[in-house]
Amino acid sequence: MKKKLLQNMAFMACLKTFHMLFDFIFSVSGIAILAIGIWMEVELYKYMEMSTAFSGTAPYVLIGTGSFIILIGSLACCCTVKGQPVLLYVYGAFLAIVFVLELGAGISIFAYRTKLTEGFDKGLTRAMMNYHNANSSQVSSDLDLIQSTLHCCGNHKASDWLELELPHALPIPPSCCIKDGCNTEVDRGEIYTQGCYNKVIDFLDANIGIVAGAAVGIAFFPLVGVILSCCLASIINKTKYEQMA
């Protein structure tokens, strides 16, 4: 009996070590998800808002999930150190909730990507029509940023600027210039000819695809914590029972 008790205590110490390691990695994953959400809000926002299907919720889902993981991860160490079975079961339940949240976030981003790309054709044309609207200065600066960054011009081609319905027809803006200071009305060979639609779609597909894939991949990690928490709680209860016996 004493030998078995010592074996259980050694196994419990081993599980606690693994659990502490999991808690650390789990907190780091929360920081990573939070950083991805902030990156989407800061860097991808200007591209996403061009779509008529843009809702702006996806980055906040990741930010909220990451913050929740960091909070739970910080409390997890106390549960592991104290070794209270009830706290460990509660922690396991929270991990199960995190699993559902992360899996839902990844799936929703995949679905959101499809809706987002479908609205870009209308969204880019609308942005072009409002380019010189005094109330749409932010849209204009975002469109300039997209054209200069992705080396594109117009929606599907540079001449889209000239083919807008009156009174929206405009000269091709300077952000379409390959080199700074070109005259877009004269130096047609010095402007980008490829439209922005395909480039924006490719850019977002690549970046949002990585984000969604990472969210789904990380989602299954909390299940490891659920198993560790339940096993540790079970062995603690078993050890206490054997000590009393």
Automatic annotation (TrEMBL):
Keyword vocabulary terms for this entry: Disulfide bond, Membrane, Transmembrane, Transmembrane helix
TM spans (from-to): 21-40, 60-81, 88-112, 208-236
Disulfide bridge map: 153-177
SUPFAM superfamilies: Tetraspanin
Membrane-related topology note: Multi-pass membrane protein
Localization in the cell: Membrane
Pfam families: Tetraspanin (PF00335)
Source organism superkingdom: Eukaryota
InterPro entries, sorted: Tetraspanin/Peripherin (IPR018499), Tetraspanin_animals (IPR000301), Tetraspanin_EC2_sf (IPR008952)
Cellular component per GO, a single term: plasma membrane
Family from the record: Belongs to the tetraspanin (TM4SF) family.
Protein name per Swiss-Prot or TrEMBL: Tetraspanin
